[in-house]
TrEMBL record:
GO cellular component: extracellular space; Golgi membrane
Annotated EC: 1.8.3.2
Phosphoprotein as UniProt keyword: no
Required cofactor(s): FAD
Catalyzed reaction equations: 2 R'C(R)SH + O2 = R'C(R)S-S(R)CR' + H2O2
Listed GO MF terms: flavin-dependent sulfhydryl oxidase activity; protein disulfide isomerase activity
Name this polypeptide is given: Sulfhydryl oxidase
Domain Thioredoxin: 1-140
Upper taxonomic lineage: Eukaryota, Metazoa, Ecdysozoa, Nematoda, Chromadorea
Amino acid sequence: MTYVPQGNNPLLYQPGAEPIMHLDQATFTDTIFDPTKHNSFIVEFYADWCGHCRAFAPYYREFASLVSTWGEVTRVGAINCADAFNAQVCRDNGVAYFPMIKYFPRHSSGYNDGIILEAAHSGTNLRDQLANKILNEYSRMPYPDWPNFHYLDVNRQTKFEDLWKTVANNANYLVIIFEHFDGAGTEFMLNLFPYRALVGGRRALSSTPLVQMLQITTFPYVAMFKRGDQQAVFMGPYMTTTIQEIVNRIQPGQFSTPAPLQTTTRRKIDLVDCEKEPERCAGLYFTSETDMLKAMHSALHDEVIRTNDRIDGQNFTNLYNFVSLLAEHFPSLTFANSGTKRRLARQSTSMVLKKSERAKMVFAHMKQFLDQKSGMVTASEWKNQFESIERVYGHPFPVNATWQHCAGSFPEYRGYTCGLWSTFHTLTVHTYMDTIKNRKINPLKPLKAIQGWVNSFFGCQHCKQHFMHMTTVLFPMSERRVRHSHDMIMYLWRAHNIVNNRLHGDTTEDPQFTKYQFPPLFLCPTCHSGGHFSRRQVRNFLLRYYANIRPHHWSHSL
Ligand SMILES: Cc1cc2nc3c(=O)[nH]c(=O)nc-3n(C[C@H](O)[C@H](O)[C@H](O)COP(=O)(O)OP(=O)(O)OC[C@H]3O[C@@H](n4cnc5c(N)ncnc54)[C@H](O)[C@@H]3O)c2cc1C
């Protein structure tokens, strides 16, 4: 539980603080497929930047705490698939969305042995799903060193001693749980298992003759017997406190409470109050070269190589269109004073973005690589080519640098998805700027290239579904809406504001970066007029905001 996994990305769970085993590319196979182990595994495949995973984390934590005493039978693990270090193992596991929960039976020997569970937002639901999987496994492979989950077989010939057959010799007590078929008995047996040297456990069906003998009328119900004594020493309905009560009756002080849920005390941060200090707040908003390069490395490398090995058909076209857009319009210049068409035409105060210039060469090479591939490339070929080209250009993607504008006030906020949005907006603005004199540009093309990448490669499944629904049904990305070249900027602006509106108040919202309708008043007072946005002012603001890019070396020389 204390192992700190390799990789660069932040983790959603704290090593050592929770009963969750951290796995990574280096440990996954040896741990999960170890043929000598006695336990099964349940593993969450997550992405640290994924909103669904962040919202799911408290439930997984609660679940891990609930089953923390089941360690001899099953263990809880997690692996961060957003970390490039783990890309291969996540791909081998067929992780197509996040969070993905898989149960690996005790004798699993390969990735295909994992069984998918529902990532329910409830610790007890996850516990019940796990108990079910354990029971299914036991019904096929009744391991003698697991709890005896078989129902007691009681008939007229059964003697009292027969009930004790599988109870450890030194255990002087036996507890029987009576239940309707596959009720709470499995969980009870797993909870009782750590005390097997004191007390044995068995399950019995509500139809067994013992039920009549003991005059039990409600289920689930437990009865405890002492060795040699046919009279039950304790009887009562099964509740969450029953095991504790049983253990305390036998040997007071022996009951060990499951690992408590860690309430991590967060360092206090001083949030900037944007109403009181609008200028300070405005200073937190800028377009960062670092953020875009980090995001594009994940988008083209980590996300693409996690997909199925064969990239063909529509996925190939979508990859080709997106990498072409990057090769043509990813910004390699920053403009300090842009904002109106006239200023753009002068472009007098531009500066080269050195890393982006080299990154653009990587994009161009990757496009050429696809040109030679006639409609199909494998993820491994793509990975090898990408890694070799980025080496040739001196690793222009600062993957280990910290997020700049996209840094959250806590590690679980912002990051990659903020970097994606920033790049998407920047691409529309720079396509507009690059083609300002060429009226022949189809303004839908860059938007469709972005939509295609999201559809084929964005690992956040629910984001993808929402985005596709929005851009095809709610607010269609169509010729009617995107007629003029500046429409591509304004379409994405409005689409993003629809997402902001939906996510406002969501648990994933960074308290410092509230999901405003963008740009908020403190960033652009002139954009707001009579409770509405002035589209012309917004357009000029977006041109300024996304043309004026803070260079990587600027952020890292502070
Ligand atoms: C395609 C896509 C779909 C997503 N869908 C979901 C989803 O369904 N559910 C979910 O939980 N998360 C979703 N996300 C993630 C979510 O939108 C945010 O990225 C995440 O919550 C982090 O928010 P943030 O505060 O960093 O700001 P972000 O919303 O990521 O914005 C990044 C930056 O873009 C600028 N910006 C903000 N709004 C606009 C605008 N209207 N026009 C121009 N610039 C703007 C600001 O500088 C802002 O800081 C999606 C992300 C993407 C890329």
